[in-house]
Specification:
Elements lengths: L9 E3 L5 E3 L4 E2 L6 H10 L13 E7 L5 H13 L6 E8 L5 H8 L6 H9 L7 E7 L4 E7 L2 H7 L4 E6 L15 H7 L1 E9 L4 H9 L2 E7 L6 E7 L21 E5 L3 H12 L3 E6 L13 E3 L9 H17 L5 E8 L4 H12 L8 E4 L3 E10 L1 H9 L3 E4 L5 E2 L4 E2 L2 E2 L2 E4 L15 E10 L5 E8 L1 E7 L1 E5 L3 E2 L9 H14 L1 H7 L4 E10 L6 E6 L1 H7 L15 E9 L5 H17 L7 H7 L2 H10 L7
Parallel strand pairs: 4-5, 4-8, 5-7, 8-9, 12-13, 12-22, 13-18, 15-24, 22-30
Antiparallel strand pairs: 1-2, 2-3, 6-7, 9-11, 10-11, 14-17, 15-17, 16-17, 19-20, 20-21, 23-26, 23-27, 23-28, 24-25, 25-26, 29-30
Bound molecules: S-adenosylmethionine (SAM).
The site of S-adenosylmethionine has 23 residues, from α2 and β5.
């Protein structure tokens, strides 16, 4: 299977309705797709009445297509939103994502939707397999799009829906979207009393739904269709969280304390505000005092050769950072010319290009075996942090006293605490095995003005306007202090001479300032995000792992306490995605990641591994 999903093979009816040649079916009725969406899915799910009085409402869909159902729903939400702080989450699944231009063409049939269509198209999800998460905070609307075949993506998804739109082409033309194996998965992701609606009354669909616990009823159909289905879930839904799974909050969080004002904490604060929470950000040293304080930073993808959970996670995080920062005054799109450092790396690049995980808009081959990342970003961390912290209550420059068990910070009570203080989180989780890596970069101002550009080969060099930045070194932080050193400056100068001698010549004639920071790094180099495990209970519950036995139990966690950390040298790439994961976990929103990605960043992984490998003692 190619890493990029196959685009749909589209035909268009004379009325402008898209037709999928592969399935020989229309995306929506040619007569009036919008009215059909309203009658079959919105009214079929009892909307808007069903969301009255709700603080959060989640709708899931099989088959995102042109996004018409999503826009019809958003339009109804605008007119009937239960309260100014209510949140609507839409989760959808799509194997063959439409290009933005095709979606625009299809949606142009409804001028009344054009204000919303423009907003959706402006942030149209990138097509690589994985999970895209887009939100429109002012509207209280979020979209979580799982890209990939539903048979793979649905079991990996984590959410609980109040309503389902089942919209996967006609069952007789596309059996994969109505497979009997899907209904139990749908039921496991349906809240008690949740509903489902669809245009088809095919017997297999009715049987699948009722066997999974839905009460199904036929209703008068829309347009030329005689009948349609409505279903109500009579089961209890939601699977129990596993050892690495995400924890829904015991009570909805309102006041959230965030400890640490580097890029991780700042992104958590921004996400918390977008989700309608009240974040308070604490840092004794102020914003960007640690590793996030360099004058410029680069956001570029790390591309693995294989299609592993880790490779997908890296792409999800990169695409999320790209979408989160693009267009901010502190960010500029740039291309990065990445040259291989070794034959091994050249072979990896060749594999990546043979089966690219990003589309041509993002990635191309360059002469000499290199990669050209065409939509990377150069950012000014200070400006990005300010942007993230706008409207957030900031408590800087004073000591921070945290009582995790009582959920108190400096004596004040919170509903949740997120620890995002770099190496500071090691105190709450020594078993994370965090180590500090010392990274130094060099900066020169007053250079010949240049558009944003970057070159990389292990080290990297950036230009933006009159600034240049290059580095970075990567060494153990032996005494935990962020010292600059002449040796690191010399190593960076040597690397710049190879990467961009023309920049080096000019920069070396001006004042060069060195910046050092400590990057908190985990043993497996992947970051951590999620609920903070209760280590004492976890060592007891999972003790049998130490004896080679298996345990099927949820992870015991400290209620209301979360971690974001271990971002290593990819802070600006990981932070927006991790922040969204944690705020989704904390508010009970759909988790914008596939389960293998969640497991790969779960703090619990180190406890489970430690018990299995005998490096962590089980409790008696
Ligand atoms: N709800 C859409 C809209 O508002 O435009 C129309 C959905 S269209 C009827 C069905 C969608 O299901 C198509 O976009 C198609 O690519 C997608 N699809 C078909 N088979 C799939 C599969 N096995 N997994 C995921 N998506 C699939």
């Amino acid at each position: 299977m190619a890493r990029l999903p196959a685009p749909p093979d589209l035909d268009w009816t004379p009325e402008g309705t898209p037709v999928a040649r592969q399935f020989d079916d229309v995306y929506f009725t040619t007569a009036d797709g919008l009215e059909e969406a309203r009658a079959v899915f919105l009214a079929g799910c009892g909307l808007p009445e069903r969301w009255q009085g709700r603080r959060v409402f989640t709708v899931a869909e099989t088959g995102f297509g042109t996004g018409l159902n999503f826009l019809a729903l958003w339009d109804l939400w605008r007119r009937t939103r239960p309260s100014p702080t209510a949140q609507l989450h839409f989760v959808s699944f799509e194997a063959h994502p439409l290009a933005e231009s095709d979606a625009a063409r299809a949606l142009s049939a409804w001028p009344e939707l054009s204000p919303l269509a423009e907003r959706a198209l402006a942030r149209w999800p990138a097509c690589p397999r994985g999970v895209r998460s887009i939100s429109w905070p002012g509207e209280g609307v979020s979209l979580t799009l799982h890209i990939g075949d539903i048979a793979e993506a649905l079991p990996r998804s984590v959410f609980s829906a109040d309503a389902w739109f089942l919209d996967g082409f006609s069952p007789s033309r596309n059996a994969s979207m109505w497979d009997q194996g899907l209904y139990p998965l749908i039921a496991a992701r349906t809240a008690p009393g949740g509903v489902a609606a669809t245009f088809t009354v095919a017997r297999a669909v009715r049987e699948g739904l009722s066997t999974a616990g839905f009460e199904v009823s036929k209703q008068p159909g829309f347009g030329r269709k005689r009948e349609r289905l409505e279903a109500r879930f009579a089961g209890s839904g939601a699977p129990a969280p596993g050892a690495l799974a995400w924890h829904a909050p015991a009570s909805p969080a309102g006041k959230v304390a965030i400890i640490g004002a580097g890029i991780a904490g700042a992104c958590v604060a921004r996400e918390a505000r977008s989700a309608g929470l009240q974040p308070a950000l604490f840092d004794p040293k102020g914003p960007g005092a640690g590793a996030s304080g360099n004058p410029l930073a680069l956001i570029m993808p790390r591309l693995d050769a294989g299609d592993t959970p880790q490779a997908r996670l890296l792409i999800d995080a990169y695409l999320h950072a790209q979408a989160a920062f693009q267009g901010l005054p502190g960010a500029e799109m740039t291309s990065v010319h990445q040259s291989p450092r070794s034959d091994e790396e050249a072979a990896r690049f060749a594999k990546v290009l043979a089966d690219p995980p990003l589309p041509l808009e993002d990635l191309e081959a360059v002469a000499g075996g290199g990669l050209l990342h065409k939509r990377a970003l150069v950012v000014r961390p200070k400006q990005i942090l300010e942007d993230c912290m706008a409207g957030v209550a900031c408590h800087f420059g004073a000591p921070v006293e945290t009582d995790l068990a009582a959920l108190r910070v400096n004596g004040d009570a919170f509903d949740a605490i997120v620890l995002a203080s770099g190496m500071g989180i090691a105190a709450a989780g020594p078993w994370l095995g965090l180590t500090g890596k010392l990274g130094q970069v060099e900066h020169a101002a007053g250079q010949t003005p240049a558009p944003a550009s970057a070159v990389a080969a292990g080290h990297y060099a950036l230009a933006w306007g009159e600034e240049r930045l290059w580095g970075a070194t990567y060494a153990p932080a032996t005494d935990g202090e962020a010292h600059v050193s002449a040796a690191a400056q010399a190593a960076n100068a040597a690397a710049l001479e190879t990467l961009a001698p023309w920049w080096h010549r000019q920069a070396s004639q001006s004042a060069v300032t060195s910046h050092a920071g400590i990057r908190a790094t985990t043993p497996d180099r992947l970051p951590v995000a999620g609920a903070l495990p209760d280590i004492a209970r976890a060592r007891r519950v999972f003790a049998p792992l130490a004896r080679g036995q298996s345990v099927d139990a949820p992870a015991p966690c400290l209620p209301g306490v979360y971690l974001v950390g271990g971002l290593g040298s990819r802070g600006f790439t990981f932070a927006p995605w991790l922040a969204r994961l944690v705020i989704a976990g904390l508010t009970g929103a759909p988790i914008p990641a596939a389960r293998p990605s969640l497991e790969a960043v779960s703090p619990m992984r180190f406890i489970l591994r430690g018990l299995k490998r005998g490096t962590l003692n089980p409790a008696p």
